[in-house]
């Protein structure tokens, strides 16, 4: 019975188990199949089953447990054993336990693999072990080997001690080799560990199409001869030596070339190099040391890789990379969590990555959970990442649809003791507030408006500016009335019109201008003490610490003045400020119809009954031409009548 059970036949195994149970009085396992029940694998032909096994066993960029899985599949039954052999793929860690090298050589050259291996992945940490294995195995693979991968965790010194020319010569004997990938962990992205000597290649790799040598550079002399050794090359990845044009010296058959170094060439966002796939594949390694090293490499590439945009897009496009980074946000190991978060924050700064991150399962929930971290850096980085994601309009909407609690989390951070944290949360809220539905959510949140209004009087120009910016965006929609009625809101914004920061004044003026589109607010704003004095000063061209923001501020002030009307003496006060007429005339060049309409209205109010102001305005260079342009321009149809009236008065 025992011999029959070990024969590999699933049916005989079931019969043996049932006879054992009946003789002992035990109940058979409910999972055991009846003798006449069909084995589902019998429905699959060997070719289809082999294709399934190959997909499971050949994942050279993941480097997980394919060798273990292969042995387990072989142990199921004789048929599985035969089908696994035919797949021809094998991955092995040469440092996974004692006598691993001997076990690999014995297995690779034994009856289960002999004459069938087409694809091989080897991981090694010791140069001597690697050389011995290659010398023993490669001569037996010259007629079958098609793809060969080496992932090497050597020091730079050990890597330089290896006779790479000898290894390449051995690989040249493999007649059908089409893909060769060697990855040196310790090299990093920016400089090579080994410079190859192409003179040691006695003959070309005739069929090699895919070459990845991470950590290796072609020689500074003889680059041309190096590429001549690969006449069929289509895809290449290696490090470059400074000042050498590798692509121009390469084969004309090349479809893609990625060159690592201080400046990385060949990445366009869509190209994901083999080395990057390997690093991404190691993010979920069972070894914490391997995970940390992979995270450090990705963090270095994301932060320092140039050019920045294609580098970070390539990282995000690496298969499984985003999901693995998101998964690491939930681990208990603080170092891994922080590194993964920092990488995601860097990736989120780039437009094309944002929707992919938002729709990555669990990403938003994990970022939100980090708002409650005891570490200020972690809370700030999580809020920063969400703020970047919110800059993508579609991603912003999807994010709140998936996890509405994000907004409450950001509002809660406005109470944080760290002002930098408050500022980051504010910027994120500003982006989320651009959406109509999100603005309603923010206003409805407990304490949302009250916290924003309190920050107007925080004493920090940065926080006050951010709060005014957020309130302006909330005031664009149906929530405007709630914003205007929030206790202290109008007073706080008017107070900021007198800020020493032009940027802060502009944001306050913009928010007040938006709120003044409501009749009730337009009546209440001028009643705030000091409003007229501060508003008139905004039109003084001599006041301001930033030319760009001064221009925006002046345009906002003109629009605000038109929205709230004016009391007696205001127009005269504005006209008395040297250069104020010129400021208002410049607004006539705005592409925004409301701003142009406001400027025309103010100028009309100033010149009616005041011949001195009318004369001064008419003498300003270009004013008549600007008004004529407004009258003739169809987009300013709503202003034609007022502009024509003003033009007639000035002629």
Automatic annotation (TrEMBL):
One of its GO terms (cellular component) is vacuolar membrane. One of its GO terms (molecular function) is protein-membrane adaptor activity. ARM repeats lie at residues 447-475. Keywords: Lipoprotein, Membrane, Repeat, Vacuole. The keyword Membrane applies. PROSITE patterns: ARM_REPEAT. SMART domains: ARM. It is a lipid-anchor. GO terms for biological process: nucleus-vacuole junction assembly. Residues 1-35 are annotated as: Disordered. It is found in: Vacuole membrane. Belongs to the beta-catenin family. This is Vacuolar protein 8. It comes from Klebsormidium nitens.
């Amino acid at each position: 019975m025992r011999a029959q059970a070990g024969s590999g036949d699933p049916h005989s195994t079931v019969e043996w188990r049932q006879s054992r149970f009946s003789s002992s009085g035990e109940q058979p396992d409910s999972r055991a199949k009846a003798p006449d029940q069909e084995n589902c694998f019998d429905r699959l032909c060997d070719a289809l089953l082999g294709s399934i096994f190959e997909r499971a066993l050949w994942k050279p960029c993941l480097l997980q447990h394919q060798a273990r899985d292969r042995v387990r599949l072989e142990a199921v039954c004789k048929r599985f054993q035969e089908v696994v052999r035919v797949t021809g793929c094998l991955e092995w860690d040469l440092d996974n336990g004692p006598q691993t090298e001997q076990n690999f050589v014995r297995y690779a050259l034994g009856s289960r693999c002999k004459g069938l291996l087409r694809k091989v992945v080897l991981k090694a940490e010791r140069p001597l072990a690697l050389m011995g294995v290659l010398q023993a195995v490669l001569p037996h693979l010259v007629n079958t080997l098609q793809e060969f991968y080496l992932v090497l965790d050597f020091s730079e010194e050990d890597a330089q001690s290896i006779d790479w020319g000898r290894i390449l010569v051995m690989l040249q004997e493999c007649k059908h080799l089409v893909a060769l990938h060697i990855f040196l962990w310790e090299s990093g992205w920016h400089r090579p560990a080994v410079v190859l000597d192409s003179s040691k290649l006695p003959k070309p790799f005739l069929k090699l199409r895919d070459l990845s040598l991470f950590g290796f550079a072609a020689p500074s002399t003889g680059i041309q001869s190096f590429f001549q050794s690969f006449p069929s090359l289509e895809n290449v990845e290696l490090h470059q030596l400074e000042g050498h044009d590798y692509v121009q010296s390469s084969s004309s058959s090349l479809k893609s070339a990625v060159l690592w170094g201080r400046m990385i060439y060949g990445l366009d966002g869509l190209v994901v190099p083999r080395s990057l796939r390997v690093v991404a594949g190691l993010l979920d390694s069972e070894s914490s040391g391997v995970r940390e090293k992979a995270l450090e490499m990705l963090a270095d590439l994301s932060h320092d890789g140039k050019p920045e945009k294609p580098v970070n897009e390539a990282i995000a496009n690496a298969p499984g990379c985003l999901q693995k980074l998101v998964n690491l946000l939930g681990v208990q190991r603080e170092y891994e969590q922080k590194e993964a978060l920092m990488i995601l924050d860097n990736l989120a700064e780039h437009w094309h990555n944002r929707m992919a991150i938002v729709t990555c399962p669990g990403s938003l929930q994990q970022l939100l959970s980090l708002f409650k971290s005891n570490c200020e850096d972690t809370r700030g980085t999580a809020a920063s990442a969400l703020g970047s994601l919110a800059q993508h309009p579609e991603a912003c909407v999807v994010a709140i649809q998936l996890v509405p609690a994000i907004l409450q989390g950001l509002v809660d951070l406005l109470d944080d003791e760290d002002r930098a944290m408050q500022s980051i949360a504010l910027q994120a809220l500003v982006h989320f507030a651009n959406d109509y539905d999100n603005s309603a959510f923010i206003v409805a949140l407990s304490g949302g408006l009250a916290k924003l209004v309190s920050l107007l009087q925080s004493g920090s120009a940065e926080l006050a500016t951010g709060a005014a910016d957020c309130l302006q965006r909330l005031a664009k929609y149906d929530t405007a009335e709630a914003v205007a009625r929030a206790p202290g809101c109008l007073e706080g914004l008017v107070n900021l019109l007198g800020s020493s920061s032009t940027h802060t004044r502009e944001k306050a003026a913009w928010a007040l201008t938006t709120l003044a589109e409501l009749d009730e607010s337009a009546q209440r704003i001028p009643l705030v003490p000091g409003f007229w004095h501060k508003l008139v000063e905004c039109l003084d061209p001599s006041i301001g610490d930033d030319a760009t923001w001064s221009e925006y501020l002046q345009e906002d002030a003109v629009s605000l003045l038109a929205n709230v009307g004016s009391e007696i003496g205001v127009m005269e006060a504005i006209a008395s400020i040297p250069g104020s007429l010129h400021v208002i005339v410049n607004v006539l060049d705005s592409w925004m119809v409301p701003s142009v309409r406001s400027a025309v209205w103010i100028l009309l109010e100033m010149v009616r009954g005041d011949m001195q102001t009318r004369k001064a305005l008419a003498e300003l260079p270009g004013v008549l031409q600007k008004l004529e342009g407004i009258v003739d321009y169809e987009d300013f149809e709503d202003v034609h009548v007022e502009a024509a009236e003003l033009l007639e008065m000035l002629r």
